[in-house]
Write a structure and sequence with these properties.
Helix 2 packs parallel to helix 3, helix 4 packs across helix 7 and helix 8 runs parallel beside helix 10. The protein has one domain: Alpha-Beta Barrel (TIM Barrel). Strands 1, 2, 3, 4, 5, 16, 17 and 18 form an eight-stranded mixed sheet that branches. An eight-stranded parallel sheet has the order 6-7-8-9-10-13-14-15. With about 425 residues, it is an alpha/beta fold. Helix content is about 30%, strand content about 25%. The protein is globular, with a radius of gyration of 20 Å. The two termini are about 20 Å apart. It binds (4S)-2,6-dioxohexahydropyrimidine-4-carboxylic acid and zinc ion (2 copies).
Amino acid sequence: MVIKNADVVLKDGVKKLDLRIEEGRIAELGKGLKGEGLDCTGLTVLPGLIDMHVHLREPGFEKKEDIASGSAAAVKGGFTQICCMPNTRPVTDNKVVVSYILNRAKEVGLCKVRPVGAITEGQEGKNLAAIGAMKAAGAVALSEDGKSVLSTGLMANAMMYAADFGLKCLCHCEDASLVDGGVVNEGYYSTLTGLKGSIRAAEDVIIAREICLAESLSLPVHICHVSTYSGVQLIREAKARGVQVTAETCPHYFTLTDAVIASFDTNTKVNPPIREEKDRLAVIEGLKDGTLDCIVTDHAPHHADDKSVEYDLATFGISGLETSFALSYTQLVKGGVLTPEELADRMSGAPARILGLEGGGIAVGAPADLTIADLHAKWTIDPAAFVSKGKNTPFGGREVFGAVRYTLVDGEIKYQG
Ligand code: DOR
Ligand code: ZN
Ligand code: ZN
């Protein structure tokens, strides 16, 4: 197949090119290529988007999402590869669950699904999980996502064991004793609403701790969903002195402020919480200067039963796979912060590098994982149209630019919009 007349986002800029796909890989890039084709005039070809932080909920919470519905949401959102977090039931803390996820994803056959194993057995924070066995079964990273490993000593051991197996720890940073039941950011809007707030330090002290461990042990660490201006600064300073730290953020942290909680809409409840304008601006600055390496969704689908309750009782999380690309493109590229090639790096190149995954760029020989979008298309986010089982988004009704038209995985069209 030849993709014709597209604007192709390469590492060094956007070029009008044709692209030949053979046996699932990019075989040729050039002008006027001959052959059976897909006319992409007016469309933009990006390296297949990679989301290194999603929750697929299977096994155990299939009412919220399963591997089939989550994979469908992924390819609809332009994602060709996703990494799924281990807070399933049973927890993904052993090779059996890792293999189950891989087998089920293969049966579904939409995007590439890469399991993330738990750091501790049952995510209970007591004993390290079977790290080597999970790696052998196909886990691509380790995480205690949903919480932090409370014991610093255990976390240090986890980082050393993980490194022995070529894995990184993806750290959800939250000191539960500081959060202490907080459900939103502490500030003007927590006071206005009477909702219990949680201070930035609840996130920052663990970011600082993980940086200290990475620095002392000379090991890599990855910080999940950074939401605070002060966390961005901790990571920037650590990188400047050579610490092997990488970091991610999510669209809700660079598009929203905690003013949205005044609605009491439980779809704004997420962990870490949506913070203030100075945080939002710092997150954008961090994405621009590379302090924050990549954009993830933290796709956290929940059933309406989990959200249609009082704010305090609702579960934390936003269903993000179907809105991430358009929100990011609109806010960051149309907003004049990132170039298209920088956005492709934050949403594909960087996650591939961080986890050592195949893909992440358009080049001869690379897998033909491609996201083809109409960047001029304007549309309105409608959760009722989500294919994810999780309709929990605070972005319903928002107008965005950038619509995914085709998602190709190993050269096969897995989504057509
Ligand atoms: O908002 C969140 N939802 N944050 C997390 O850390 C966990 C996630 C979930 O699993 O629902
Ligand atoms: Zn998390
Ligand atoms: Zn998460």
